[in-house]
Amino acid sequence: MKTHAIKLFKRLAAAALFAPVLAMAAGALQLDKAPVSTDSQSLQRGAELFVNYCLNCHSASAVRYNQLQKIGFTDKEITEKLIFTGGKVGDLMTIAMTPGNAEAWFGIAPPDLSLMARAKASPEASGADYLYTYLRSFYKDEKRPTGWNNKVFANVGMPHAMWDLQEGQTTAEFDKSVADLVSFMVWMGEPIAGTRKFIGIFVLIFLVGFYVLTHKLGKTYWKDIH
């Protein structure tokens, strides 16, 4: 587990080179507010977009496929809709491309996306806002090796992976697709967020109830003591 955490940290460190610093991007342009959803249907659509458009080059090695049961997928659906390599539902969401090949093809290995929505957050904007704006800001640029550039990340090395989807959808439809993808990436960064919030609320209710009870007991005990 410790070795895995170190590897993931190194990938996120590489992300600092692969993607711009959010504070700089936020200062240069206005990031759009991401309509993040926790609806299971939105998260499932986002998961399918992720494996089809992101998982070819980017891994999500902190997440196992079977964790997607938490957003409503069954093991059968995971196998049929999300796993294309003959893997198992208990496998990590990794890619076949080696770091060496990635560096040869892109100049630097594309970063792991497990925690990217959290890593891109800053005091100025959320990581979801950054990703939502970034993924919708590609434009054709014949001067770039990939034929694409980005308004958020100038001279980006990443091609516009979702260009065919954008070509086949209206602007509103594409924005919705990106919102679903970003929602999934936010969920992926903290799959237990819903459970954590529920436990937090329960603990607060317990503490308030405990305070009220002890306060009343204290008043009852001390009322006849002078």
Mean pLDDT: 81
DSSP helix count? 10
Structural class comes to mainly alpha
**Beta strand %:** 5-15%
Straight-line N-to-C gap? 60 Å
Widest sheet, order of strands: 1-2
* Poorly predicted spans: 1-27, 194-203
Specify the biggest β-sheet. Answer: 2 strands, antiparallel
Rg over CA atoms, rounded to whole Å, is: 22 Å
Name the helicity range.
40-55%
> What kind of assembly state do the chains in view correspond to?
single chain
What are the secondary-structure elements, in order, as H or E?
HHHEHEHHHEEHHH
Globular, elongated, flat, extended or rod-shaped: what is the shape? globular
Q: How many beta-strand runs?
A: 4
Description:
With 226 residues, the protein is mainly alpha-helical. It is 54% helix and 6% strand. It contains 10 helices and 4 strands; from the N terminus they run αααβαβαααββααα. It has helices spanning 2-18, 22-28, 40-53, 75-81, 99-106, 116-119, 127-135, 163-168, 171-189, 193-222, and strands at residues 60-64, 92-93, 138-140, 148-150. α7 (127-135) runs antiparallel to α9. The protein is globular. It starts with a helix and ends with a helix. Mean pLDDT is 81; it is low at 1-27 and 194-203.
Concise account of the structure shown:
With 226 residues, the protein is mainly alpha-helical. The protein has 10 helices and 4 strands, in the order H-H-H-E-H-E-H-H-H-E-E-H-H-H.
Give me the secondary-structure topology:
Layout: H1 2-18, H2 22-28, H3 40-53, E1 60-64, H4 75-81, E2 92-93, H5 99-106, H6 116-119, H7 127-135, E3 138-140, E4 148-150, H8 163-168, H9 171-189, H10 193-222
Antiparallel strand pairs: 1-2, 3-4
Helix pairs in contact: 3-9, 7-9
